[in-house]
Design a protein that fits this description.
The chain has about 100 residues and is an all-beta fold. It is built from no helices and eight strands.
Length: about 100
């Protein structure tokens, strides 16, 4: 993660967090290089409380199932879970997938 936007205390550091998607609909969240959670995702078109007629990503994690708007441009992924309602907006920069040997 390269940027975290939220209604957080001043000087809140950006967590060492990464997210990986595969073509089969699986998603993995990493924190400090360790798997934090695995789940599934689905892309859609629709609206959230903070964005109308936008691209959506529906996550299904073991403990919750949020819907967020997202954008992907020039290797930068922004996932907005509802910043207008005090939910985080996270920005990730694309990293090359490790080569399989």
């Amino acid at each position: 993660m390269t940027k975290l936007e939220c209604y957080c205390p001043a000087n809140t550091p950006t967590p060492n967090e990464a997210i990986a998607f595969d073509a089969t609909g699986k998603v993995t969240m990493y924190k400090d290089g360790q798997v934090q959670e695995t789940g599934t995702y689905e892309l859609a078109q629709g609206s959230t409380s903070c964005a109308a007629d936008t691209t959506l990503i529906n996550f299904t994690w073991p403990s919750y199932a949020p819907t967020a708007s997202y954008s992907l441009r020039d290797g930068v992924l922004i996932i907005d879970q509802g910043l207008c309602l005090d939910a985080p907006r996270k920005t990730y920069k694309s990293a090359a997938a490790p080569k399989k040997e």
